[in-house]
Structures are given as structure tokens and as C-alpha cells.
């Protein structure tokens, strides 16, 4: 009996030891399975960027990530897309670390909104943030937006900074005074929480840092976490391309020109098809950012002037007017206050794109459409009598009542003399004309003209 008790005690001890070992292993597994979800915002922020970020944040939440690391290098972007990103970050049930990286990167204009919205904000050495004053693009270039717009976004970034416990006054000055801060100034003025040389140093420094997610207090465990990198989907890549104002304007012009060229030179259907596809894509892209309708009207007027020049040559007067309307209309087309950041080079690139489109438009209408119209006019001056004596093939069976032939790329109605029948594909000679109908006869030999 005593022996049984001892055996039972040993078994209990072994069972407890086994359970402790399993618990330790599972705890170690949990530690090893700690994931930091990494996604990057680079270049102009568009609707595709917003879709990519929101998808990534949702995936990180589903994976149970310890934190999301949002790496920033952006000059700014579309207003609606930026607001979607900041809203998603602020409402995520996972800590979000916003980090301006690599060295020399910027989080300017709309990018500063995203930086401030992070649970933890950090910057690498040699980086810059701020310069978020809303601007308007016009003929004379860039100028500050109206006071109402500036006040709204100043209040919004102030609210975001206050919600994250940051210097709301300095955040507001990003918009009202266009302040731009280096990483050291941003740290001194309470915009960011730390400076980190690289991603590895950042994750080491935030390890054990207390954070608040919603109403819950947490402690980050990032030191030995594995990294999961977000890959862009095809959908987000397409949206990112289409919602870029430069691409949208190019697609719009190609679409319009394709339709015009197709209507003036019917038969191939290729220009119309390409034009229709580009036009649909352009209209979809234009719908992804705010558009100035006056700019749209000027672009339409430019197209009308180009067509008028092709139909009634005025030695370049209408073409010059069309080019001016096109440049002005395209420049003021995007109505996005965060789209341009001074010194980012975006406006310069956009201007060069517009000038290139205008130059291509002038060449297109003066050369391509002009050549098509000359060909059409030359054909109209050729009398059908000049076709008499020409030899071609029957397109269909030809009888004394009906039939067709093709000559010089045109389809003509044809008939034979009484009692004669010509099969499809046989060679025929044009011998006379009655109105719009050619009279033909069968030939045994002859070359097709």
C-alpha cells in the first residue's frame, strides 16, 4: 500500500513536471512567434497607397501582430487617401510605429499627418518632416490654399497629435506656418518619441516600451520578433497608377485622341478601342481625387480648337490657342491641397509632363489628322470614271441586279450586264458607271490594281 502511494506521488510529480515543460515550451513558442508587420509608404500618396495600407493593417490585426511598423518616405499626396490612412491607424487594435526612413527620407505634407498618427513615432538621422501647409496649383504656380482650408487641416492635425500625446501646437504649425523639422528638432519639440539609426535599432529601443491602444495599456515585446513584410497587391498597384494625376491626364488625352483619330479614319477599330479603354481608365482615375471642373472645361476647349485647326487650317492660330488651354487646364485639373510639397520636385515633373502632352498634341493634330484629312479630300476629288478599265476581284457574287467589289480600299456596289453572273473571288473589269453602281464584266486574265 505504501509502495502504491509512492508510485502515485512520483507519477503526480512527473505529470506536473511534464505540464510545466509543455507550458514553458508553449510560452517560448509564443515568444518566438511574435510578429512585427512591416509596410512601406513611398512616393506620392494615392488611393492605391491607402488601399495597400488599410489592407495591411487589417491583415496585421488578423495575424495578431505585436505591432505594425509603417516606414515613410513621401512628399505628400491626395487628401482623401491620407485621411483614410490616418483614420485606419488611429482605430487599429494593434500598436502602430511610424518611422521616417532611410536616411535622407522625408515625411512631408500629408506624410507628416501619418507620422503624427502613430502610437510611437520615430525618425532616422538625416530625415525631415512637416511642411504641411495646403496649397493650390494655378497658372502662376503654387500658392497657399484659402484660410478656411488651412484652418480645417490645422485643427485636424492638432487633434491627431493631442490624441497621441504629442505636441499639438507644433503639429498645428506644420499647417499654419509650414514648419519643417529635422529629426533632432522633431524629438526636442515632442513630435516623435525617438531617433533610430535603422529598423533593427528601432525595434530594440521600443522593446518594453509601454503604449496605450484604445483604453488598454500594453508593453511592447519587439526585441526578438520576426518581421512580416506587406507585398502590394495587383489591385492596389493599379489604383496607385490610375489615381496619380499625371497618369490620369495622360490617359485622358490618349483616350480623346484615339477616339478622334478613329472617327476620322474609320475601318480599323484599333484607335477607337484604345481610345475608349484609356478614356474609361482616365475617368476612373480622375474620380479618385478632387478635380477642378474649370480645368476639365479648358481641356475640352483645347481639343475643340485642335480639331478646328485640322478642319479649317488657320496657320497655327487655333493650335496655339488649344495648346495654351491644354496647359492651363491640365495644370489646374488636380484640386488637392496636399499634393505638392515645396522642394519635392513633383510640381516641376507635373509641369514637364503637361508641356510634353501639349507638344505631342500639336504634332498629332498638325501631322496625323492633317494627313488623314488630306487623303480623304484627295479621294473625294477622284471621279468614279477614272476607275473604268481597272481590274479587281468580286467581293461577293455579282449578278445583273446586285453585288459588290473592292477597289482602292473602298467597297462599291456592282452589277453585270444582262444575263451574266460572276462568282465571288473572280476577276472583273469595270466597264461603266451608273450613279453609285459600277458595271463590271468577267475577265479571264488581268492584274488587280
Describe the protein in words.
- Helix 3 (79-90) packs parallel to helix 4.
- This protein is α/β, with parallel strands linked by helices and 449 residues long.
- The radius of gyration is 35 Å and the shape is elongated.
- The longest helix is centred in the C-terminal third of the chain and has 35 residues, at 346-380.
- Helix content is 50%, strand content 18%.
- It has 3 domains: 28-233, Alpha-Beta Complex (2-enoyl-CoA Hydratase, Chain A, domain 1), CATH 3.90.226; 244-380, no CATH class; 384-442, OB fold (Dihydrolipoamide Acetyltransferase, E2P).
- Helix 3 links the parallel strand 2 (67-73) and strand 3.
- It has a 6-stranded parallel beta sheet with strand order 10-5-3-2-1-13.
- It is built from 14 helices and 18 strands.
Amino acid at each position: 500500500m505504501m509502495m502504491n502511494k509512492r508510485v502515485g506521488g512520483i507519477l503526480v510529480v512527473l505529470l506536473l513536471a511534464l505540464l510545466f515543460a509543455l507550458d514553458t515550451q508553449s510560452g517560448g513558442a509564443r515568444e518566438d512567434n511574435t510578429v512585427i508587420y512591416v509596410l512601406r509608404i513611398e512616393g506620392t500618396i494615392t488611393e492605391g497607397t491607402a488601399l495597400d495600407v488599410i489592407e495591411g493593417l487589417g491583415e496585421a490585426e488578423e495575424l495578431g501582430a505585436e505591432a505594425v511598423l509603417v516606414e515613410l518616405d513621401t512628399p505628400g499626396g491626395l487628401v482623401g487617401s491620407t485621411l483614410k490612412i490616418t483614420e485606419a491607424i488611429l482605430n487599429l487594435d494593434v500598436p502602430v510605429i511610424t518611422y521616417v526612413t532611410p536616411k535622407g527620407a522625408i515625411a512631408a505634407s500629408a506624410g507628416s499627418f501619418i507620422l503624427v498618427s502613430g502610437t510611437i513615432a520615430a525618425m532616422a538621422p538625416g530625415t525631415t518632416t512637416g511642411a504641411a501647409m495646403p496649397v493650390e496649383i494655378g497658372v502662376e504656380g503654387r500658392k497657399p490654399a484659402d484660410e478656411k482650408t488651412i484652418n480645417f487641416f490645422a485643427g485636424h492635425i492638432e487633434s491627431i497629435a493631442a490624441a497621441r500625446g504629442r505636441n499639438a501646437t507644433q503639429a498645428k504649425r506644420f499647417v499654419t506656418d509650414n514648419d519643417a523639422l529635422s529629426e533632432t528638432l522633431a524629438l526636442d519639440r515632442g513630435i516623435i518619441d525617438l531617433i533610430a539609426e535603422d529598423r533593427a535599432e528601432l525595434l530594440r529601443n521600443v522593446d518594453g516600451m509601454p503604449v496605450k491602444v484604445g483604453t488598454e495599456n500594453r508593453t511592447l515585446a519587439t526585441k526578438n520578433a520576426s518581421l512580416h513584410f506587406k507585398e502590394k497587391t495587383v489591385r492596389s498597384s493599379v489604383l496607385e497608377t490610375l489615381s496619380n494625376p499625371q497618369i490620369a491626364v495622360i490617359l485622358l488625352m490618349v483616350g480623346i485622341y484615339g477616339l478622334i483619330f478613329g472617327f476620322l479614319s474609320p475601318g480599323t477599330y484599333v484607335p477607337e478601342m484604345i481610345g475608349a479603354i484609356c478614356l474609361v481608365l482616365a475617368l476612373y482615375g480622375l474620380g479618385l481625387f478632387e478635380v477642378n471642373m474649370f480645368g476639365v472645361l479648358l481641356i475640352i476647349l483645347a481639343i475643340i480648337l485642335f480639331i478646328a485647326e485640322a478642319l479649317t487650317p488657320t496657320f497655327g492660330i487655333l493650335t496655339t490657342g488649344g495648346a495654351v488651354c491644354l496647359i492651363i487646364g491640365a495644370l489646374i485639373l488636380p484640386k488637392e491641397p496636399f499634393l505638392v510639397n515645396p522642394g519635392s520636385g513633383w510640381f516641376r515633373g507635373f509641369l514637364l509632363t503637361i508641356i510634353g502632352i501639349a507638344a505631342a498634341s500639336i504634332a498629332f493634330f498638325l501631322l496625323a489628322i492633317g494627313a488623314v484629312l488630306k487623303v480623304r479630300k484627295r479621294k473625294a476629288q477622284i471621279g468614279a470614271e477614272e476607275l473604268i478599265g481597272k481590274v479587281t476581284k468580286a467581293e461577293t457574287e455579282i449578278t445583273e441586279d446586285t453585288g459588290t467589289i473592292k477597289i482602292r480600299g473602298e467597297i462599291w456596289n456592282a452589277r453585270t450586264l444582262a444575263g451574266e453572273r460572276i462568282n465571288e473571288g473572280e476577276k472583273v473589269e469595270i466597264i461603266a458607271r451608273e450613279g453609285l453602281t459600277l458595271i463590271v464584266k468577267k475577265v479571264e486574265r488581268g492584274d488587280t490594281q
